[in-house]
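Fill in residues.
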């Protein structure tokens, strides 16, 4: 870029052709490719996050549906059996009739692992599944204050409802239980309870097919693990006082870091809570995308179902986005390089044409070489026209003194519009004996003699600021005092 002055336009900034073409072509290419690249990367990123979230949501939908399909029938069955007891269709005073009703009901509910009917003191009949079918036994939980307390609490509820997770003293199983208070003739007759083991729930989660490697879990009261693939065979450390494992003691570092983020590094960026996906960092520096939702349908204690994936699986999708970004950037750089080559290819002939025009302006035609051809038609036409102009200018230079043309150019166009009279000095030269001398020469020798003579005389005249007017045979006519003083 350079600053020039024009008598009519004033001071303006001028840009070179190469700069203008580079800014024009390169700028348009840069803008177009950059916009497409940024939109493509943004869309790919959002799609990857969205698909990951939808995949996790689909898994949670499946898990939630499976939980409902397993637990809702137990809830409806307890409500149905309780009404039959209250209506007298099942004789609670007849132990055989009660046992038969409990056994047949259990056989019709594969989701349920046990049915029990307890009176107010905690005594009653229990029906469980075994390899041979239903197993009936009398039970007495009057020595368990927790069970007796829950029986008393359930008396105030007249519909089926889910109670807290229990592990009865005489059963080596941790149970989810749905219960219903049974009233007969206005008196509390007992509590009907249907149980589902947590191992059944965990086995169901273990069968869940995931598109990416991950883990499905169910938390209880945001502190305990209710269902997990590792609990498919039960919880070995369970007791009536501790029916479920604590998350912090369970051995799943991802769940531990989920409940206590201080255990691992904090992650964000690609996916965050705002997107519905949390990045959980473990103590070993690994990151796991995790999504969870709450369930408040199975008792007063909230459940939380969730799924997390290995970050490597999610990163694979992001690496594809990154590779696309790198490819787009390479294409952008190549397009800018091609724009620079094209601008240089267009600008170079114009620069050569400008230099040649400058030589013509100074009447420096000696040693002039033709402008090269160009693959661009307009550039080639301009160069050929200029090359064809040079021979005409050389002929013009032969008959019009170069010094006169330069002086007229310095004085401007107005000098030709007016006439004036002035006193000048005129010089005539002549070669003595030229005619006789040239009679002994051939044409080429005579021409060379004249050319050498005119060159020496012309140089002397121009050195004294004279103007050659014309050549007459072997004579030279020159003058001083016009057009300049």
């Amino acid at each position: 870029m350079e600053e020039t002055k024009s008598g009519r336009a004033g001071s303006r900034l001028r840009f070179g052709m190469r700069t203008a073409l580079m800014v024009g072509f390169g700028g348009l290419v840069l803008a177009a490719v950059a916009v497409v690249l940024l939109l493509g990367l943004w869309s790919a990123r959002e799609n990857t996050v969205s698909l990951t979230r939808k995949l996790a949501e689909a898994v949670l939908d499946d898990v939630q549906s499976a939980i409902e399909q397993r637990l809702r029938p137990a809830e409806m069955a307890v409500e149905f059996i309780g009404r039959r007891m209250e209506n007298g269709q099942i004789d609670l005073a007849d132990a055989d009739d009660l046992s038969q009703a409990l056994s047949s009901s259990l056989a019709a509910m594969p989701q349920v692992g046990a049915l029990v009917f307890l009176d107010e003191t905690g005594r009653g009949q229990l029906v469980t599944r075994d390899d041979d079918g239903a197993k009936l036994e009398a039970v007495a939980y009057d020595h368990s204050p927790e069970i007796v307390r829950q029986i008393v609490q359930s008396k105030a509820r007249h519909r089926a409802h889910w109670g807290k997770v229990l592990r009865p003293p005489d059963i080596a199983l941790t149970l989810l239980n749905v219960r219903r208070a049974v009233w007969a003739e206005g008196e509390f007759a007992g509590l009907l309870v249907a149980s589902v083991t947590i191992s059944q729930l965990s086995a169901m989660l273990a069968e869940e097919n995931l598109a990416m490697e991950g883990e499905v879990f169910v938390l209880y009261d945001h502190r305990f693990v209710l269902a997990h693939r590792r609990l498919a065979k039960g919880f070995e450390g369970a007791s009536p006082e501790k029916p479920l494992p604590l998350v912090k003691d369970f051995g799943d570092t991802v769940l531990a870091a989920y409940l206590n983020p201080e255990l691992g590094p904090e992650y964000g960026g690609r996916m965050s809570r705002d997107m519905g996906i949390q990045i959980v960092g473990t103590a070993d520096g690994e990151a796991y995308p995790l999504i969870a939702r709450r369930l408040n349908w199975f008792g007063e204690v909230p459940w939380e179902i969730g799924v997390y994936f290995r970050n490597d699986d999610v990163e694979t999708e992001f690496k594809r986005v990154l590779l696309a970004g790198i490819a787009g950037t390479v294409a952008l750089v190549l397009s800018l390089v091609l724009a620079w080559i094209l601008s240089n290819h267009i600008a170079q002939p114009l620069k050569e044409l400008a230099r040649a025009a400058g030589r013509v302006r100074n009447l420096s035609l000696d040693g002039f070489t033709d402008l090269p051809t160009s693959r661009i038609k307009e550039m080639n036409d301009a160069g050929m026209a200029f090359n064809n102009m040079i021979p005409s200018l050389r002929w013009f230079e032969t008959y019009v003194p170069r010094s006169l043309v330069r002086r007229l150019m310095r004085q401007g166009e107005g000098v030709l519009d007016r006439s004036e009279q002035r006193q000048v000095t005129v010089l005539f030269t002549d070669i003595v004996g030229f005619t006789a001398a040239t009679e002994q020469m051939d044409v080429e020798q005579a021409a060379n003699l004249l050319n050498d003579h005119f060159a020496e005389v012309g140089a002397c005249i121009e050195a004294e600021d004279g103007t050659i007017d014309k050549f007459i045979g072997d004579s030279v006519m020159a003058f001083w005092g016009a057009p300049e003083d």
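DSSP finds eleven helices and 16 strands in the chain.
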